[in-house]
Structure formats: structure tokens, C-alpha cells
Design a protein that fits this description.
The chain has about 200 residues and is an alpha+beta fold. It is built from six helices and eight strands. A hairpin with a 2-residue loop joins strand 4 (about 40-45) and strand 5. Helix 1 packs antiparallel against helix 5.
């Protein structure tokens, strides 16, 4: 673990030289806390959703109503994790304007105007990952997935279901059509291959 301002922090799994507002297809995996099977179970190679699983499923499809420039591709809820592909398309304004507009974030306090002006003087020397640590930006993969996780947590808490997410999420930038098809097939066939899954328990 590295230190930030004298305190240990969890290293980001995000690529440090990539802006996650960039147009691309992203393979997303989000796990339930300690990989507990909150979302349901596999019966005869099919996923049977619990109440929590239904919420996770329904709210994934709501993402497109709350984020811009996004397409939702293959998606599955598994007993203790979810897999999905999201595409950002036409998102260039958010990718290029990250340093021009301060936004409210959950990772750091919003910058005051004079702080923001000083910060911009040094941003040319920073990687996208270093900028992202202070400002996750609008319509980025992190902000979209963070909002989704928060929505699921909010609704499960409201209904008094026992549930929590694992910290963070996993992502993979899909580079070409061959990889896209392979990952899509993996997602769709995941319930039938549950016993061979790395998250199986």
C-alpha cells in the first residue's frame, strides 16, 4: 500500500495513463462483500435471483437513464458478483474537460476556485490516474459504477435486506471486436459454468 498525505491508501486498479471518460467498451465486475451469495443461486445452470439480486438486476438497466453517452451490453447477475459491459460513446467532452470543471466527488473535497486555478498549473505533469485520484470526473466509469452501487445499497437498506458491496470494482478495457465477443460469451454463459468460476463458493 502507498501513502497519501501520510496515510496508507488502497492502490487503484485503474490504469494510470488512461482517462476513464474515454470512449471505449469496459468489462465490469463488481463483487458482493466477502463474496457472499446475496444475489441468489444457480439452479439447473440458471440464475435464480433473490430479492437483492432483483434490485441489482433492475438498477443496472437504469444506468442508461442516469448517465450520458452510454450503451449497456451483455450483463449477468451471479450469486456473489455481477458482470457487465458498458460502452461510452461520444463522451469526448467529459474526457477532455475533466481539468476545466471542478465537480463534487466522494474521494476528495471539492476545490475552491483559487485552489482549482493553482491545481491546473501543475496538471500537465500529472497522469490521468493522478488527476482522477483528486477528481473522478463526470460520466466516467468510476462515477457511473459508484452511482450504481450506491443505488443498490440505498434500495436494499430501505427494504432492510442484509447486503453490502465489496470495496471498489474490477474493470478491463476491451480493445477489439474479438475480445468483445469472447467476453460477451463468457458473461452470457457464466451461470452454466458457475462451478468453474473463480468466484464460486
Amino acid at each position: 500500500m502507498a501513502k497519501f498525505r501520510g496515510k496508507y491508501r488502497i492502490e487503484s486498479a485503474r490504469l494510470q495513463d488512461w482517462d476513464y471518460a474515454n470512449d471505449a467498451a469496459y468489462f465490469i465486475t463488481i463483487c458482493a462483500f466477502e463474496r457472499e451469495c446475496y444475489f441468489g443461486e444457480i439452479v439447473n445452470n440458471r440464475m435464480v435471483l433473490s430479492h437483492v439480486g432483483v434490485i441489482a438486476d433492475v438498477l443496472w438497466y437504469e444506468i442508461k437513464n442516469h448517465a450520458k453517452n452510454i450503451e449497456l451490453e451483455s450483463f449477468v447477475v451471479m450469486p456473489n458478483h455481477i458482470h457487465g459491459i458498458i460502452k461510452l460513446i461520444g463522451n469526448e467532452d467529459y474526457a477532455t474537460d475533466r481539468n476545466m470543471h471542478p465537480v463534487e466527488t466522494r474521494h476528495a473535497l471539492s476545490l475552491q476556485p483559487h485552489q482549482f486555478e493553482q491545481k491546473n498549473l501543475n496538471d500537465d505533469k500529472k497522469t490521468p490516474g493522478q488527476i482522477r485520484f483528486q477528481n473522478q470526473g463526470k460520466n466516467t466509469v468510476s462515477s457511473i459504477i459508484g452511482s450504481y452501487k450506491s443505488a443498490v445499497t440505498k434500495h436494499t437498506n430501505r427494504l432492510e435486506y442484509n447486503f453490502d458491496w465489496q470495496y471498489g470494482f474490477h474493470d478491463h478495457i476491451i480493445r477489439n471486436e474479438k475480445s468483445f465477443l469472447k467476453i460477451s460469451n463468457y458473461i452470457l454463459n457464466n451461470p452454466a459454468n458457475w462451478k468453474d468460476d473463480m468466484f464460486f463458493r
